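Question: Now follow the chain.
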Amino acid sequence: MRPAVRPSWSLLMSITLVLVCSGLSLAEDYYRNRSLGRHLMSLAERNPELVRVENIARSINRRNVWLVEVGRGARQNRETRPAMLVVAGVEGNDLIGCSAAVSWVNHLAEQYGNDADVTKLLDTTTIYVMPRLNPDAAGHFFTKPKFETSLNKRPVDDDHDGLIDEDGPEDINGDGLVTWMRIEDPEGEYILDPGDNRLLLKADHLKGEVGAWRYLTEGTDNDKDERWNEDGPGGVNFNRNFPYNFQFFDADAGLHPVSEAETRAIADFVVEHPNIGIVVNYGYADNLSKTPKGARPAGRRKPMTAIDEGDVGYYRAMGEIYREALGLDKELEGAAASGSFSDWMYYHRGRLSLAARAWSPAVAGEMSKPAEKEEEQNSESDKKRKDHGDGDRRNERQRRQLKWFDENAPKAFVKWRSVEHPDFPDQRVEVGGYVPFALTNPPASMVEQITAKHANFLTTVAKKLPRIGIRQVKTRHLGRSVYEVRIEVENTGFLPTSLAQGRTTREVYPTRLLVDLEDRYFLSGARFTPLPTIRGSGGMVEARYTIQAPDRRKIGFEVVSTLAGRVGGAIELPDAK
């Protein structure tokens, strides 16, 4: 490499290299899909023995869906080790989830060889990351006008009028954003929030409230059916497109489960990689902010609709790790979605499937709230509610949320301004409200802090995978070349070798012990021994054999676990006396 001649040129090249390696330009807050691909490829080129990148699907708009594999060793070893899968961008408006996943990959690559824990993790574990499953929807963040959607580009006749995508939202006031409209209308369902008139509140007729406003996404009635923006571009929400609890005929669920190339690709990948023991899914669904409820198994003829009570403790433990990593002092409300990827991975595949929003205004508010001031703030909030009359708590969360944005990201909310609207010539129409992606992704200034917290969380979770080991092998000579053999198999990881739901679905094969000895030598026991589930944190099971081996002094064996890896050993037979 030719040495630099001028310091200024060297400095320029250094800055350019940093930008290329980060995958970001100075004008971007989040990864464009093309820069995401360049960054991942660059990372793999700089760490060829550790990071591998491939394209597993193409979107309708021909964008790549990337898969990153992180782990040291031969392919055969990587495919049989305990593994963890992280998926982000299942809903395309999830940009921060993608950043969190990529930041973690960066961290692992940088720390390998420098941090003993990370080095050991990647020598014994395989990490799979799909940072953006729905690149088409994410692309709206980088286009003008900016428009938020969680749907892909699949053309769908949402209003069943024989036309496709003919009435979508539009940028009426020309500010480059598709926000919201409120229309003064005596037939409307909303009133202005007395606590903050930037917000609307659904009128409660039992309280004598009379609606005065309509609330719509910004746009016009293109097909003149007196409905607004009811058939926009797209599509399918990938987090509604998986088999468990799939809702046929729902507008955004898709024609059938895994109907899209992207969801089919990830489903095929999961089936082809049974060693995946933990899944972390960033998106709308959330079972980490609050511990999900458990239930007893419903029996063979009834599907489970709640976490098996035998598995709830693991979800509680993971939730505590998550909240500690993010700096949350209490549980927040969880969320569920029909047909979600995370539910499919638990209820059908039997894996520990964790789901969370990488960021939300609620999480941000709790992270930034000093614990000692919480009681004071709650008292102030109660006083304000009383001032608004009748202790009305409606929109309380929305008011707190808007206050947080006022203090931390004031540009996230566009002030309401009157516009001339062709569909409402004699009515007051205002355009404003939250800008696209503001409620689902943090301000750019917070991205680095948030992704660092998630990197720590993901590393901690990866260390909780089950790991099979041999505690000891005991032998005793019984006479006439007959031996008693006892092999103690232990689980040094945190999770069991199979969750309760994994045993119910039978998608996690039992751990088995294979002894390298012909059947005719076994007086009791067999070459192939299925083992019961081994709990984590030092759980142990014992396999016993009586064998006759007149011409053998050393016999090999191997323990194979779907989720906890493989380990080999040897039976050393004592000399006959």
Summary: Residues 444-462 form the longest helix (19 residues). Residues 1-28, 371-379 have pLDDT under 50 and may be disordered. The first strand starts at residue 51 and ends at 58. The radius of gyration is 28 Å.
